[in-house]
Amino acid sequence: MKNSYLAGVFLAFISGIIWGFSGVCGEYLFTNKHFDPFWLTSVRLLASGLILFTIVFTKSKFKVFAIFSDRSALFDLGLYAVFGLALCQLTYYFTISYSNAAIATTLQYTAPAMIMIFVCIKERNFPTFREFIALVFATSGIFFFATHGNFQNLVISKEALIIGLLSALCVVIYSIAPIKISQKYGTNAVLALGLIMSGGVFWIFYAIFGGEILPSIDFSAFLVICAIVFLGTICGFSLYMIAVNFIGPKRASLVASIEPLMAALFGHFWLGSKFVFFDYLGFTLIILCAVLLSKK
C-alpha cells in the first residue's frame, strides 16, 4: 500500500513536470510560429489517441472495444473525452495564446480546490489536516507566483482569466470522470479512446468552419509538436491517470501542481522569462505542497 501511494505521488509529480514543458512548447508555437490553438488541440488529441490506441490494441486486441457495450461507461467516456480532455486542452491553449504558459497553468491549478470541495461534499467529510495545509501551500504558491503578493499586479486579460478558470473546471472533470471506467477497462484503453473521440470531434468542427488543415510546419515546429504529442499528451495523461488510481484525484491534482513551477522554469531558460522574489516564494510553496503529500 505504501509503495503504491509513493508511486502515485511520483507519477503525479512527473506528469506535472511534463505538462509544464508541454505548455511552454505550445507558447513557442503560438508566439513564434503563429499556430491556431484549435488546430494544435485537434492534432494533439487525435495523433496521441491513434498512437496510444495502436499500442493498446497490440496488447489487448478487440478487448479495447469492450467499453462500447456498457452504456453507463460509454456516457462517462464521452463526458471525459469532450468536457475533460478536449475542452481542457482547448481552453488551456487559448489561455496561453491570450497570455503565456505560466499564467495558463497558474489559473488551471485552481482545480485542486474545486476537486477537494467536490470530493469532500460527495463523501461528506472534511479534508485531513495534511491535505488542508498542502492546499494552503499550493494556493498560496500560485497566488504569490501570479500576483507577486498583490492582486492588482495580476496583469491578465479578461479572456485569459475566464478561459483559464474554465480550463480548471475541465481539470476537475478529467480527474474524476474516468476513475471507475479506468479501473474496469484499463487506463490506457480509456485514455486512447477518449483522445480519439475528442480529437476527432474537434477536427471535424475545425474543418467544417474553414480552419487551415495543414499550416506551414518547419523542422523545429515539427519537433515541438512531437514533444507535445508524445510527452505532453501520451506520457503526461497516462501517468496522471495511473496516479489518480493510486492516490485519488485530490492528492494527484495537488502533487501535479508542480506544473506552474515547471512552466515558469522552462519559459525562463527557453523563452527568456524573468522572475523576482515572489516567484521563488511561490515555487517553494508549491514544492512544499508536493513534499507534504508524499508522506501518507
UniProtKB/TrEMBL annotation:
**Annotated EamA domain residues:** 7-145, 160-294
Q: Where are the transmembrane segments?
A: 7-31, 37-57, 77-95, 101-120, 132-148, 160-177, 189-209, 221-242, 254-271, 277-294
Asked if Membrane is a keyword of the record, the answer is yes
Of the GO CC terms on this record, one is: membrane
Classify the source by domain of life. Answer: Bacteria
**Matching InterPro entries, A to Z?**
EamA_dom, EmrE-like
UniProt xrefs under Pfam families: EamA
Name the UniProt key words of this record, in alphabetical order: Membrane, Transmembrane, Transmembrane helix
Q: Which PANTHER family match?
A: ACYL-MALONYL CONDENSING ENZYME-RELATED, MOBA-LIKE NTP TRANSFERASE DOMAIN-CONTAINING PROTEIN
The name this protein goes by in its record: Transporter
Species this protein is from: Campylobacter hominis (strain ATCC BAA-381 / DSM 21671 / CCUG 45161 / LMG 19568 / NCTC 13146 / CH001A)
